[in-house]
Design a protein that fits this description.
The complex is a heterodimer of chains A (388) and B (306). Chain A has 388 residues and is α/β, with parallel strands linked by helices. Chain A is built from 13 helices and 12 strands. The radius of gyration of chain A is 23 Å and the shape is elongated. By secondary structure, chain B is mostly helical. The chains are: A alpha/beta (388), B mainly alpha (306).
Chain lengths: 388, 306
């Protein structure tokens, strides 16, 4: 009896071995998503992860696709040391062909050498520090979103145009905050604005009352904040505590739903900038938002979700074209020109940087980030701080 | 410097000092009674703030809006909730590890801190993001030149100080306090004298953690924003304040708290270098003070520990 049983087992196993490839004819290819999934900037990271995941799911649902993709999700915690660890993990895993990487600039800049060493092609989906693409000649590094250079240029022109004269700059002391400080100061001075003082703050600092007391004494027209949402919320909230009436403006780092959620009415009138056009206004934006809603993710896509979606799609389309081979993917990505995407056509320059000509200004109006030109503030129906 | 601006610095510094002192007192109590360092204490502060916030939202949903009632219930919920958490930590983490090297307790509580942080992040709705903390205190303010005297901040300073004084009175003047001090001086003899050692430890942890819960609510009411990771730095600062003041001494913890707040303020505004170095400056001075007075500014009265 036992002999029959083992024979039966062997037969079943043999059948399964023969049948398995028939049941799943497509080869599975691994790509990686890296962003801050825990920590103070997790909201942005989770939005990016969901968006990349959405791209993969939509792609896998396409019967014509040659490959099935498996998205490996890793957490960089928005910390450079952790970022290098997970980048090494992804790079060393030869089954991973390419990556959609990093929201935090401090992490993205710390990991470029790692990707270069392992020859892993990556597309940055959110970090805006120029040096990530422009500070090296690594063919592995690409970026679909714009840099803080254009962002601060547009910012300085808009706010000086409103008639503001004096600024105090508060920035975090990571590469991200320092970069914003540098470029904003440069363009603001060109456009005739005056920086009264410049404060560097720690990326995990809680109390800003001492600095803000000094700001109050200086009484600038505008307080510019170069940093990310958690600190931005604290600075804005503590400005109010000290009775500082200056206009508040920030960078792409604070354009998030959580900024408004945490501040409530205090967020009203905050100005900030984002590279690219608003997602709702792009031809594919409606499609993206509909699909995102249909997949019922627990967290919103946030400001850079669309870029993570595009980066994932570009990687998958490239692999479809040249096969799952890192070198071939790098060579093919370098040729990317007018790749149609939901954030507009993507074209990489010699540094792998997408040439995004558009920067959009936003202002918080009635608890929403509204495109500046459509807002009541631009139309003169409402006034910013200082009556501008 | 303008007198109003100076007054503003002092006022903000005192507020900050009260929060630090409340955290530091917990560290000093735990060390005094059991010679342990509870490194999750900062995260207990954070948990207290979130319990307070959740209580507020519950009251809000029930339609209870009278600010005085709400503040009282929120503070009590945070205090009691953290007292319970503190006792649980003592009963199931600290006491079982009593025979193990102190290093193990330190590591275990450090890990517990990470667990608390991640639990809040994962299970509090939208917990990764900064959460708005309601403004429940009267926001009247008087402008005296560059100085804005806010009623809510003043109330918080007074409440914080009164709470610390109450804890101090409990330890100095009551039978319970006597038992705590007896255990602190010599737990073996205290046991022989009929003091329920385990109960005293649990109560001490409950008191210290309740104070941390209050500190969380004070923090929330002051900054009107709480985040799941506020406990990390608060813990380190509270611990440094307790050490520099003199671990085991309540007055030392208070002194340490205010000293650290003063150092941070000076580091932010009075130094020629960038304000980014305020914590570097404050911690550096603490290191210097510690090498000068290793047992702290107010040393624990020498007790024989065999």
């Amino acid at each position: 009896m036992q002999r029959y049983l083992s024979f039966a087992c062997a037969l079943v196993l043999a059948c399964a071995t023969f049948l398995a490839p028939g049941a799943d004819a497509k080869e599975t290819v691994k790509i990686v998503f890296i962003g801050p999934l825990t920590g103070g900037n997790a909201a942005l990271g989770l939005g990016g992860r969901n968006s990349a995941d959405l791209a993969v799911q939509l792609h896998n649902a396409d019967a014509k696709a040659k490959y099935t993709f498996d998205l490996v999700k890793l957490d960089d915690q928005c910390k450079p040391d952790i970022g290098v660890q997970v980048a090494t993990k992804a790079g060393a895993d030869s089954s991973i062909i390419a990556g959609v990487t990093h929201y935090c600039s401090a992490v993205a800049i710390a990991t470029v050498d790692t990707y270069h060493k392992f020859g892993l092609p990556v597309i940055v989906w959110g970090a805006v520090l120029p040096a990530i693409t422009y500070g090296n000649d690594y063919p592995e590094i690409h970026r679909v979103n714009g840099t803080m250079i254009n962002q601060n240029d547009v910012n300085a022109k808009l706010v000086t145009g409103l008639g503001y004269k004096t600024w105090v700059i508060i920035h975090d002391t990571t590469d991200y905050g320092k970069g914003h400080d540098e470029y904003f100061t440069k363009y603001l001075t060109q456009d005739g604005g005056k920086v009264l003082a410049d404060f560097g703050v720690g990326a995990d600092q809680q109390d800003f009352t001492a600095i803000l007391t000094k700001v109050k004494e200086l009484n600038p027209d505008v307080v510019y904040f170069g940093g990310l949402t958690p600190i931005g919320v604290r600075v804005r909230s503590q400005m109010d505590k000290l009775g500082i009436k200056s206009q508040f403006e920030g960078t792409s780092g604070i354009v998030s739903d959580s900024y408004i959620q945490a501040l409530g009415p205090l967020a009203e009138g905050t100005i900030a900038f984002i590279d690219g056009a608003p997602i709702e206004k792009l031809p594919g934006g409606k499609f993206f938002l509909e699909q995102y809603a249909a997949h019922k993710y627990a967290e919103p896509p946030e400001a850079y979700g669309a870029y993570a979606f595009v980066a994932a799609n570009l990687i998958m389309d490239t692999i479809e074209k040249v096969g799952p081979n890192r070198k071939a993917v790098i060579a093919e990505l370098a040729k990317t020109k007018d790749y149609p995407s939901i954030v507009g056509p993507v074209t990489f320059d010699a540094h792998g940087q997408n040439i995004v000509p558009i920067v959009t200004a936003y202002v918080v109006q009635d608890g929403k980030w509204v495109v500046w030109h459509d807002s009541d503030y631009a139309k003169g129906k409402r006034k910013l701080a200082g009556g501008k | 410097m303008d007198a109003g601006v100076l007054a503003q610095y002092v006022f903000n510094g005192v507020m900050l000092g009260v929060i630090y002192a409340m955290v530091a007192v917990g560290f000093t109590l735990f060390f005094g009674v059991l010679d342990v360092i509870q490194f999750a204490h900062g995260d207990v502060v954070m948990a207290g703030a979130f319990v307070g916030l959740a209580t507020y939202l519950a009251l809000h949903a029930l339609g209870i809006a009278a600010p005085a009632v709400v503040v009282l219930v929120v503070a009590c919920a945070a205090g009691l909730g953290m007292a319970l958490l503190g006792a649980i930590i003592a009963r199931w983490l600290i006491l079982p590890l009593r025979a193990a090297p102190a290093f193990n307790t330190l590591l275990v509580t450090l890990m517990l801190g990470s667990i608390l942080r991640e639990l809040v992040r994962l299970f509090y709705p939208n917990g990764s993001n900064p959460q708005p903390f309601p403004r429940l205190l009267p926001s009247a303010s008087a402008n005296l030149g560059h100085f804005t005297l806010r009623l809510d901040t003043t109330l918080l300073i007074v409440t914080g100080l009164v709470t610390i004084v109450i804890v101090n009175l409990v330890v100095r003047r009551t039978r319970l306090g006597l038992a705590i001090r007896a255990v602190a001086q010599d737990s073996e003899t205290a046991r022989v004298m009929g003091i329920d050692f385990e109960r005293v430890v649990l109560v001490t942890f409950a008191i210290g953690s309740a104070l941390a819960g209050f500190a969380g609510v004070v923090y929330g009411l002051y900054y009107n924003e709480v985040n799941f990771d506020i406990g990390l730095l608060l813990g380190v600062i509270g611990f440094s304040a307790a050490v520099v003041g003199g671990l085991g001494s309540i007055y030392g913890a208070i002194l340490g708290g205010f000293l650290f707040a003063a150092l941070q303020t000076i580091g932010s505004v009075a130094l020629p270098v960038s304000s980014a170095y305020s914590n570097v400056f404050a911690f550096a001075v603490v290191i210097v003070l510690m090498t000068w007075k290793p047992t702290g500014l107010i040393a624990e009265p020498a007790s024989e520990r065999v």
